[in-house]
Structure formats: C-alpha cells, structure tokens
Amino acid sequence: MCSPPLVGRARERRQLRTAADPGRLVLVAGSAGSGKTRLVQELHEATDTTVLTGHCPPRAEPFPLAPVIEALRGAPIPDGLSPLCGALHALMPEHGDRLPAPLPPATTPADDQHRTYRAFTELLGALGPAVLVVEDVQWIDQTTRDLLHYLTPRLPPTLSLVLTYRPEELPRSFPVAALAALAPATTTHDELTLDPLTPQDLLTLAHGFTATATAEDAHRLHAWTGGQPLAAVETLRHLATLTPTEPAIPAQPPVPAALRDWWIHRLRALDRDTRRLLRAAAVLDTPSNETHLARVADLSPHRAEKALARACRRGLLHTTDPTTLTTATPLLRQVCYTALPRDKRRRLHRAALAVLSQTPDPDHARLAHHAREAGLLDAWTNHAEHAADLALAQGEDTTAVTLLRDALTRRSLPPRRRCELTLKLGRAALTGISAEHTIALLRDVLTTPGLSAAERGELRMELGLLLLNQAAQGRTARGELVRATAELSTRPDLAARAMCALAVPRDTSDSVDTHRRWMEQAVAAADRSRDPAVNQIVAVNHATLLAQIGDPDAWTVTLPDPGTAHAQPTPQTLARRREFARGSLNLADAAVMLGHYDRADHHLDDATSWSVAADAPYVHESAHTLRLLLDWVRGRWPGLAEETERNLRSPRLAHLHSVTAELTVIRAGLALAQGDPATAQTHLARVRPGPEATARTAPDYTVPVRALAAGLLARLATAQGDPATAWEHVDDLVSLVASKGIWVWAAELVPGMEALLDTGRVAVARDLCARFSAGLRGAHAPAAEAALIRFKAAIAHHRGHHDRALHLYGEAENAYRAMGRPYDAAQARESAAHALLSQTDGHDRAPSSGVGDLRSALAEYTELGAAWDASRVRRALRAHGVVTPPTTGRGRGDRRLSPRESEIATLAAQGRTNREIAALLHLSPRTVETHVANALAKLGLRSRRDLSAPSDPSAT
Fold first, then answer.
1. Considering the chain, what is the average pLDDT of its residues?
2. How far is residue 591 from each of residues 450, 596, 620, 743, measured CA to CA in Å?
3. Less packed terminus of the chain by CB within 10 Å, N or C?
C-alpha cells in the first residue's frame, strides 16, 4: 500500500524537522496507519544530514538488534574507528572491509554485549551529523531495548534519535517516554502524537483524487475511517479507479483489498478472546453493553473483561457512552463482519437474537435483521412487521417502508402474510417519494387467489392512492378507486377514503357535480364508520375539493388539530398531524394555482412545520417545489434555474412525477423568458408529449401543471407566427376545463385562447370568453380573474375597441401587480402599449405614451432577466423609430453561462464540432447544439467562430 500524502500535519512536520539538529530525542506516537512513516520521510527532504532508518519486525521471536543493523546497512563507514568497533564484524559482515579487525572473544556474554553497545555508540557518533530513526518500537526486541537504554544517556552530540511507536501496542515493560529522563541535560526532548485527521484535512486529501469532493463527502469519509490517514487514502485511491458516483464518497464505500488484508493481518495477531469479542461487536453492529458482547461472544465475564480491556487499549473498540461500546469505525466493523465464515456469522446472529430478545422493550428492527441473517425466516417476518407497526404509530413512515420492503423480499412468504404486509406497505408508502416497487407489489398481491371482496378493495384502494399521488397516473387510479368503493361496501371507513379521493378534481372528464357527489357519499360513509380519523381524512379532501374549484369556503374548513408543538405526541396526535400537513400542502398547492400567494406561504409553513422531512419526504419535496414555483411567478429568478436543474437531476426525485413535472415547467418557463426556446421546448415536451406517447408511458400530470406548459408552448408558437399551432396546444385542455366546469384552471391557457383571434375564429374566442366569465362566478381566483380580463382586452383590441382594450389591459396589469406577478404585469403593459400604438394609423410617429409603455415594459423585462421578451420589445421600438442600446447589466436574471455552457463553449472555441463535443461529454448532438446557441446568445455573439475560451471566470 502507498504512504498517505502528508496533510493535516503542518505542526508535527515543523517539530520533526528540528530533529535534524544534532543532539535531539524525538518520540513520535500514533496508532496504526496514522502516518508515522510518512512523517519521518520528511527528514530526508528537510536536510542533507544522514538519516539512518531501521524497523522493528513484528515477530514473536524478533532478530536481536535488527532495526539498528538495518539502519547501518547502507551507511558510509568512516575511517579512524577505534579497535572497539571490530566487535561489530559478526553483526555487519557486509562492512567487514571498512571495520577494524575483529576482537578476540569476550570472556562472558555480558562483556560481549557491553563491547557491542559501546561499539554501536562510537560508530553512530562517528557518522554524525546523523539521525537514527527506529520505527515500530512497540515490536522492539530485548537486545535493542537494552542498546537504547545504554545509548540514550550517552547520546553523541552529533546524533539525533527518533523513535516511532503505537502507544496502544507498546509493552508495559518498556515505557518509551521514560527514555527522555535518561538523556543528557544538553539533549532536547520532543514528543509528537499523531491524532486522526479532521474532516477538513480529509477534504484536502480527497481533492488530490477527485476535484468534485465536497465537505459532506469529507464528513462521510471521516465517519467511515475515523480520520485514519492510511484508511482514508486507500479508500480514495480505490474510489478513483471506479466509475464516478453521486455523492463522490458514499457513506459506505467499498473496502479495497489491500486495506482489507492489512486489517485482517492486524486482527489475526490478536489473542483468541479479543477476536471473538470484536466479531460479536461487528455482528451486533450497534453500541452494546459489556454483558451483551460477552454473551454473544460466548465468553465468561472474567475473560470478556480482560478481552475488552485489550480491545479498548488497542483502539479497536471505543465507548459511546458510559455503558456501551462499539467497533472503533464502521470500516473496521465491515472488515470484521465480511471476514466471518457464513456458518460462524449465522451462529453469532442467532446468539444476538437470543440475547436481545430478552431485553425489555427490544428493538424489533434489530431483531428482524438478526433473524434474517440467522436464517430464521418466520421470526424475521414477525419482528419486521412489529417494528413497522411501531414506526407507523410514531409517524416514521419511511422507516416502516424500509422494514416492510425488506420483509417482502422473502421468497417463501405465505400468500396470506404477503397480503397483510403489502397492505401495510401501501399505507406507509403514501408519504414517501418512490412508490413504483410498492405499486408493483400491490398489483401482484391483487392476483392472490382466495381474497375476500373487502381485502381486494383495501388493496385496490391503496394502489389507487399511490397511483394518484406518487405515480401521477390519475386515469388508472380512478378506475382502481371506483372498483374499490364497490368492493368495500361492508367497510364504510375504507370506502370513505376511496370516495373522498375520487372527490378531488383530477384530469378525468368527471364534472364538478360528480366530484361533489363523491364527497357527499364520502361524508355519509365516514359518519357510518364513526371513526374520527376517517372524518379527518374526509375533511382534508373536502377542503381540497373546494380549493381546487376556487370556492372561498375552502379556507374556512377546519383541518385536524395538530396539537401542541412541544408535547409528546400520541399515535392519535401523530395521525392528526399527518392529515394536517397533507391538508396544508393541498391548500398551498391550490393557493399557488389560484393566485393566493401569501396564503400559499402560510400553508407551506404549516405543512413543513408539522411534519418531519425524513418521515414525510413527499410533503417536504412537494412543498420545496411549490416554493420554487412561487419564486417563478413572483419574478424571483436569480439562481432559480440552477436550483431547478439540481432538483431535476436528483435521483431521489426521479419517480416523483408530480414534483418533477412542476420543476420541468419552471425550468422551461425560465429558459423561454431568458432567450433559450430550444431548451424550453425540450423540457415542455416531457410534460406535454406528442400524440405518439401512449397512456402507459406518459404520466397523467395535474391539469394546472399541464395548462402552464401548454400556455408556454402557445406563447412560443405565437411568437413564431403560428397561431393555429398555439391554439392546438391548449385545445384539449380548454375542452377538459369546460367539460368539468372548473374554469379557475384556465388562467394559464389564455395565450392559446388569444391565438384564436389571429386565426380568424373571433366568434369562438368570444364564446370561450363568455363561458370563462360565467365559470368564474362565485369563485375567488385572482390568477384566473386577471387572465380573463387580459383575454377580454385582447378581444377588444382585435375588434378595434382600443379604449376598452386599454382600460382592460390596465385592469389586468393592476391585478397582476396586486398578486405580485411582475412578469405578467409587464406583458399586460406591453400589450397596452401595442393597443395605444395601433391607434396612430397614418401618423409618422408613435404617441409618446405608447412608446413610454414599451420602454417601461422593456425596463421591467431587463430587470427580471427576460431577454426573450426584451428582445421582442426592442424590435417593436425600432419599428417605431426608437433605438434602445443593449443592456450591459444582467438584471435580476442570471445571464452568466452555466458550468455546462461554459464547458461546451470552451470546446467549441477550440474548433470541435457538435458531434465531437457530444461524444466527449456523453451528450446528444442536439443538446450540444442547444448549449452552443445559449452561450452565443448570452455572450452576444453571432456565430461559434466568434467564440474564444473564457479567460475571466466571472464571464462564465
């Protein structure tokens, strides 16, 4: 294995380099792998002084004087030595031609040793100035130990002595530090202790292997290795040979073979009882008390006590609190565990299961783990189910999902048990972010023969809810939920849950009246069940229904009481909190769609405050995305594109389709506004796929999200001079909104409706406007109301009613500003300017008020960073004889090149083709083409020939 690069040792390096000065004694202490050898290598680099290095071999019967002989093997033997040095002939025959003649045999062994020690002292002094380094003094032989006791008080003034050792393995009979008391008064004494590296040290170390390492990676590496330099560098070296992952350093990286064998070699040197204790700790894998360790290791209390003392002294076990111990690092635990033969591992897991089962209030998750590894399948299933039940009662849904998924991997699980566990998994997965595995299990279990109608209904209901929320398969979910209501005729508590889910408007053709009828049936079924928890679920969905249709009564529905924040929650309180968080999230989602943005902020705070991210990731991920959507509509764009891209790339959200759809539309809207229509179209195609996408491959995204995507596509088509296509983008959604009677969903469809005017279908547009207006009666939806005013203004403008158009555009702008939507307000002002300018037919110059409105819209677009819109306004101003200089600032929008754009622009500047860049970066040529176009637009260049590699980092 390699020596660890020297990081985090600046102080020790400075101290050690002074050892090159003659007449010093330096003791370097550090555990195995702490970098002692690497540190003393600095002596060779720091000075021209002769450095003599020898190692004490780890042998049961070591060679006498082995480290000193090794150190002197290559030394330049000087002339002028006294005859006494002839005593070294037998020990160093390779220097026989340089040493004085051999001495006659000594009369006693003691005399022989004394002559040898004197001869070594003289020779070492004659080699000076020199440094004698003796490594691994914990393995020193008795003769060398005696030599050091003789040499230290007589240390030649031209010689320095450096000793390295592992304190945890040092024989108690040889306290190395006591040598300092023997040194002459003129000898300077230093003691260095090499502590584990800090996370910051490890980050510096990691950057030598991967430039992408982060502080979080360094903390994970520190937790895995305990900051041991050798383990850290070997792990990093091994990871560098593998395919890069995200994160760069996982929480449990693979153990390199060299590091594994190094540890195993160390463990084999331990006595039998200490090894058994370490194996027990590795199998228990959690902090355990001495009694449990001893019983699992099958050691008597007396033997266990001694073995524990030895393991702790060697740093192999450490205390986590006054009563428990565990392996020093997860890495050591992994090595110990994987080195166990299968039969021995199973036997130890059985012992752990037996010991832990006898504790009061045992951890059933740990018992399930031990039962599984011991091969006790029924015990595994029972403990996993018990642990999952406890987790669900405590609101720890994610933990329950993990336990139940693991239990369901058992191939020999009886059908009835499989059905029971899958049903619990379906309930637990409703708050998670990845449900594909659970959906597949539910579908599989539904085919189990012999299920009663109520059992099938409950399974089908959980399947429908997962399809509805996590998988975004609304139409498929509706079919399952409708069938479930029929199968649950004898279970009003469960039927009420299915009915109230059907009451929430989705993208099916059901009308508002149908949704209201489902809610009425749900309320009646909940009353029959006499279950308060069911009534709470129905109340949340009732509020959601009212909010989705813009009914003001939605905000007066009483959500379940979450209780007091600091009180210890009961299972009933946790259930109410879960429903309160769900209701708050649903209301926030509706508030964003309706245009009640302050109300959305309030409900998002409630949703995240009364739920735990680890236990309800669906709530927190959805809330985070809604906040990003709020940033989009409010014009808070700096950094929004990067944050959205980061979330879209996250594997964690890959299967949470409702969230990724919202992120995709936000990113598309930003790309379009900032002058990147190609990227916008790429993203929008994922939410509004073409007719070739089948129902099976395309998720059923919510209507408001699809409407936002359709509106952006309609704007793009209109800008390209294709109003017919603009209308086609929204046609199906307008029909769906009309058939359902939920016109509050039509706010973002207005750009496509306005396109009807340019296709000559004015009557159709006026009819739509009338139906839109009628559909909003009784609703309170600021976004839809502002959009309707804008639609009316466009119709008036098209019909030549300029004064009415100006008045309506002014109303629309004021409405958007009252909501806090500056981008839409600027669009309304731009439209008003065009209405003003259209009144001047036959005149040479545009009225100052129209040009002023265009200038005002341009300033607002520029401030936002909406380059696409700003460019359109500049063209309009030029058409009226007004030239505006291009802006030099970036506004609040971020006009810098993204890291990927900068990388591709640099390669393009080198003369590489799109295809070459695509092959180099593993991208499609179309993606490269898009990034090159974006870079050119942001840099204000006409062609790639004008590109040059960025020299100023701020430019990219």
1. 90
2. 46, 5, 17, 15
3. N
Q: Are strands 130-135 and 50-55 parallel, antiparallel or unpaired?
A: parallel
Answer yes or no: are the C-beta atoms of 356 and 374 closer than 8 Å. no
Q: Tell me, what's the pLDDT at 944? A: 75
List residues bridging with 25 in a β-sheet: 161, 189
Record the tokens describing residue 283, joined without a space: 């199998």
Q: Percentage of the chain surpassing pLDDT 70?
A: 94
Beta bridge partners of 32: none
Residue type, 738: A
606 pLDDT more than 50: yes
SS3 902: helix
Q: Is residue 324 within a helix (H) or strand (E), and if so which, with residue range?
A: strand 324-327
Q: How many CB atoms lie within 10 A of CB 601?
A: 16
Q: Are 164 and 28 in contact (CB under 8 A)?
A: yes
The CA distance from 215 to 240, in Å, is 17
CA distance 130 to 126: 9
pLDDT score of 612 more than 70: yes
**Exposure string (b/e) for 932-953, b if CB count within 10 Å is 16 or more?**
bbbbbbbbeeeebeebeebeee
Phi then psi for residue 131, to 5 deg, are -125, 125
pLDDT digits (tens, 9 = 90+) for 659-677: 999 999 999 999 999 888 8
Question: Would you list the DSSP string of 711-780?
Answer: HHHHHHHHHTT-HHHHHHHHHHHHHHHHHHT-GGGGGGGHHHHHHHHHTT-HHHHHHHHHHHHHHTTT--
**How many residues are there in the chain?**
956
Count of other CB atoms within 10 angstroms of residue 456: 18
pLDDT tens-digit series, residues 27-76: 999 999 999 999 998 887 767 788 999 999 987 677 899 999 999 998 99
Residue type, 461: M
**Which tokens is 464 given?**
């429908």
CB 590 within 8 A of CB 547: yes
| HEC secondary structure over 482-498 | HHHHHHCCCCHHHHHHH
Two tokens, residue 623: 């809330």
Question: Which CB contacts under 8 angstroms, 24+ apart, belong to 317-326?
Answer: 317/277, 317/278, 317/281, 320/287, 321/287, 323/289, 323/290, 324/287, 324/288, 324/289, 325/281, 325/287, 325/288, 325/289, 325/290, 325/293, 326/281, 326/284, 326/286, 326/287, 326/288
CB-based burial of residue 36 (10 Å sphere; 0-12 exposed, 13-18 middle, 19+ buried)?
A: buried
Helix (H, G, I), strand (E, B) or coil at 708: helix
C-alpha count within 13 angstroms, C-beta hemisphere, residue 715: 23
- Which residues touch 782 (CB under 8 Å, ≥6 apart)? 594, 595, 596, 815, 818, 819
530: left (phi over 0), alpha (psi -120 to 50) or beta: left
Question: Collapsing DSSP states into helix, strand and coil, what is residue 603?
Answer: helix
Beta carbons of 231 and 328 less than 8 angstroms apart: no
Whether the bond between 247 and the residue before it is cis, its omega within 30 degrees of 0, is yes
User: Which tokens is 131 given?
Assistant: 């440094």
Q: Is 190 helix (H, G, I), strand (E, B) or coil?
A: strand
Sheet containing 324-327: give its strands across: 288-289, 324-327, 317-321
Angstrom distance (rounded) from CA 568 to CA 580: 17
Cβ pair 542, 503 in contact under 8 A: yes
Q: Dihedrals φ, ψ of 24, to 5°?
A: -130, 150
**342: exposed, middle or buried (C-beta count within 10 Å: 0-12, 13-18, 19+)?**
exposed
Read off the pLDDT of residues 682-734 as tens digits, 9 standing for 90 and up. 999 989 886 555 444 467 889 999 999 999 999 999 999 999 999 999 999 99
Q: Name which of 837, 807, 809 is nearest 824 in CA terms.
A: 809
Bin 940: left if φ > 0, else alpha if -120 < ψ < 50, else beta. left
pTM for the full predicted model: 0.72
